[in-house]
Amino acid sequence: MKNWSFNTCAIAGFSFSTFAVALVIFNAVTANLFLNLLLSLAGVSLLIGGALSVRAHFLWSRGGSR
């Protein structure tokens, strides 16, 4: 399996975080109709996005692209 580069980690982290925000907005638009499901998915998405962002930061600070 190939290691992800800084760009891949950063874009994936941003995408997961953006998806979480979109889910929270969709939850507000639907008047909390799917509250448990959407907030659970948003929380998991934020965890994944945060982990990928931390990985991207470590890759950037190390200066490598592995």
Describe this structure in words.
The protein has one domain (6-62). With 66 residues, the chain is mainly alpha-helical. The protein has helices at residues 6-29, 35-62.
Termini gap: 12 Å
Mean pLDDT across residues: 92
Shape: elongated
Uncertain residue ranges: none
Helical proportion, percent range: over 70%
Sheet having the most strands: none
Q: Provide the domain count.
A: 1
What Rg is obtained from the alpha carbons, in whole angstroms?
A: 14 Å
- Give, in order, the helices and strands: HH
For this entry, what is the oligomeric state of its chains? Answer: single chain
The structure class reads mainly alpha
The fraction of residues in strands falls at under 5%
How many helices? The count is: 2
Total strand segments? 0
Short description:
The chain crosses the membrane at residues 12-31, 37-60. With 66 residues, this protein is mainly α.
Question: What are the defining features of this structure?
Answer:
mainly alpha, membrane, 79% helix, transmembrane helix, 66 residues
Write the layout of secondary structure elements.
Blueprint: H1 6-29, H2 35-62
